Amino acid sequence: MKNPTRRNRNIGTSKQGYGQDNKLVVPYPALEMKSFYERLSSYKTVVKEINGHSFTFIIEKTRDNSFHSCTVEDLANVLVHIPKQDYGELELIILRQPTRKEETLHPVWGRLIYSYEFEDDYYPAIIIESFDFEKSFKWTKKLSMAAQRELERLKDDGHKIIMGKKFFEAKYELEAVRATQLYRTFLHEFGHYVHYLKVVEQPGADNEDLEEWNKRLDHYHNIPSPDKEVFAHSYADKLKKELEKKAVIPFPRIVDKQEMITNGLSLNDFIK
Question: In terms of DSSP bridges, do strands 110-118 and 167-171 run parallel, antiparallel, or are they unpaired?
Answer without folding.
Answer: unpaired
